[in-house]
Amino acid sequence: MFSETIELRGHIIDSLILPKVLDQILTRGANFKITEIKIGKKRADQSFARIEVSAQTSEELDELVLRLRQHGAETVERANVQLAKAPDDGVFPHDFYVTTNQQTFVRFDGKEIEVRPAMMDSAIALDRQKRAAHAVKFFDVSKGDEIVVGHQGIRVVPVQRSTSRTDVFQFINTTVDADEPKSAVIRELGQELRRAREAKGKIAIVGGPAIVRTGAGEHLERLIEMQYINRLFAGNAFAAYDVERALFGTSLGKNPDHAFAGGGHENHMRAINIIRECGGIAAAVQKKILTRGIMHACVKHKVDIVLTGSIRDEGPIPGVTTDVVEAQKIMREKLADVTHVLLLGTVQHSMAVASMLAPTVKTVCVDIDSAAVERAVEHQPLQSIGLVTDVEPFLRELADCLAKPKNAGREK
Fold first, then answer.
1. What phi and psi values does residue 151 have, to the nearest 5 degrees?
2. pTM (2 decimals)?
3. Cis peptide bond upstream of 316, omega within 30
């Protein structure tokens, strides 16, 4: 048997870090022995555990320790990171360390360096001269760059449950299913967004076409007008449907207020053509051609619009980033200072954004598909809420809640 001793520190009990570590050990067929444990007696007290982990082979032990590090485990031996040079542009060396979105440190020359930004599914590049460590994507790396390999000398600090107060984001069960009541959660979310706005936090919406097609756009407009939205992330289709609805009363030929609507796909194409003729959404608003809708509200209230394209897009509308690598860079930059994100009715876009978020960002995912909700919130287990429901009643109730005075309707 091969063994190594690990240590856990922090709120490892109430944040479920210790159970997750033990579960990883057992599910991988390894053994553990808790040689020391100290549990905090008060809510704010931290805990400590020292665990001897053993496995049949050194390879199995190395793989297990790598997984445990992602939950905040530290090895007793404080070693420096191992480095290897990138063999070519856009290529990482073999056995490169794959990052999570948790706060990460690397040890170099006996000192720890924080990896910035905290970004999942990346590698770590180390600059010896600047003594800086960066999370890098394939398109960021150049031949000869020094990349962290293996798991030695790496420390991960997972987000832990807040001890100051319990809010709606601190529920152990983060998903509210379709057959469960949601009003209380939405009211608490409204209070959270109020606090975020008062604290000058940045609130982003990731919107899918379902917002427009279900008639929920007017409720999103209300949130924008009340200045609860700072950024909007969406695809070309979202903007095109909203513009079509504003100009012709339909979205892809359908009107949520009527059983039948004329125009079919023609309205969709004509709407895109009008915006292209104007030179973009902002220009159409300035020329008073686009006088209502979500895009109009965003321009009027200075909400930053980040639109990305796909191979299915018609047009696209001017301002849509069609280069996928460039789109990733723009989205990461625009998400860097965001504190709260609402992922509404768009599976692929939600997954893309969720993978780019820092671990401290509070996330709400709303979708009628329960599997989509589960996938979107799994990256932020202590910072996420999932609601399995249609986006229209969610946005309507949230906007109604935020339209009321601050303390209205609260129980005494």
1. -125, 0
2. 0.80
3. yes
Residue with tokens 């903007």: 239
Cα separation, 314 vs 318, whole angstroms: 11
Q: Are 261 and 253 in contact (CB under 8 A)?
A: yes
Mean pLDDT score, 220-233: 98
- Provide the 3-class DSSP secondary structure of residue 73: coil
Contacting residues for 411 by C-beta, under 8 A, at least 6 apart: none
Q: Which amino acid is at 37?
A: I
Query: DSSP alpha helices (H): ranges in 114-263?
Result: 183-198, 210-213, 217-225, 236-248
Residue type, 293: G
Parallel/antiparallel/unpaired status of strands 203-207 and 175-176: unpaired
CATH match of 78-158 with 2.40.420.10: yes
In words, the CATH class of domain 168-403 is alpha beta
Structure tokens at 3: 């063994």
Q: Are 377 and 384 in contact (CB under 8 A)?
A: yes
Average pLDDT of the chain to the nearest whole number: 89
Distance in angstroms (rounded) separating the CA atoms of residues 83 and 85: 7
323 pLDDT band, cuts 50/70/90, is very high
Q: Residue 302: helix, strand or coil by DSSP?
A: coil
Where does 288-346 have alpha helices with state H?
Answer: 294-300, 324-335
- Between 130 and 358, the more confident residue is 130
Q: For the chain, give every domain's residue range.
A: 1-77, 78-158, 168-403
Indicate the class that CATH gives domain 1-77: alpha beta
